[in-house]
Amino acid sequence: MRLLHVDSSITSGNSVSRQLTARLTRRYATEAFDVSVVYRDLARSPLHHLSPAYLQAQFAEPGQHSAPLEEDLSVSSEVLEEFLAADTVVVGAPMYNFTIPSQLKAWIDRLAVAGKTFRYTETGSVGLVEGKKLFIVSTRGGFYGPETACLMTLWSVRVRMRCPVRGGHPGPDGRGRIAKPLVVKGPG
Fold first, then answer.
1. Could you give all domains of the chain from N- to C-terminal order, each with its CATH number?
2. Which residues are known binding-site members for FMN?
3. Which of 38, 55, 151, 175 could bridge 141 with an S-S bond, Cβ 3.0-4.6 Å?
4. Binding site, residues?
């Protein structure tokens, strides 16, 4: 079995999301048989964000690009293949300034490839990736323990910044939470 472990926190030693993804990966690897782990650190080796040149290069013949663009296309292909080859994916997704890190967004952009991870139909897009387990370890705030500071959520963004938040997903059980969450305890 192949497990892809992706971290995106820009804080290394103090990162709670990194601690939790490492703990979850270790736990999963010890409970499963014959696990190979591929690790990608998006903060230490960030992907380029999408650009007009990158999008145009997707439809051009190989060899018609600059060397840096060829390298970017090669890394993108590698990232996509890592994801497609994995049976299980563990993603560290801390929340900075009300959203995920831009490094993680750049990774997600490289996975959204028509014909590989989804296809277009007359009624809309349809996912092509099935049978994977995906664990998203989301952290926010910065202080964890008995006297935890107020944690930021999309709903608190709405209240504090008076920004409308629409389309909040109620969760798999319809009550705003995951029906049977796997809890991996962090520090504190």
1. 2-144 (3.40.50.360)
2. 9, 15-17, 95-98, 139-142
3. 151
4. 9, 15-17, 95-98, 139-142
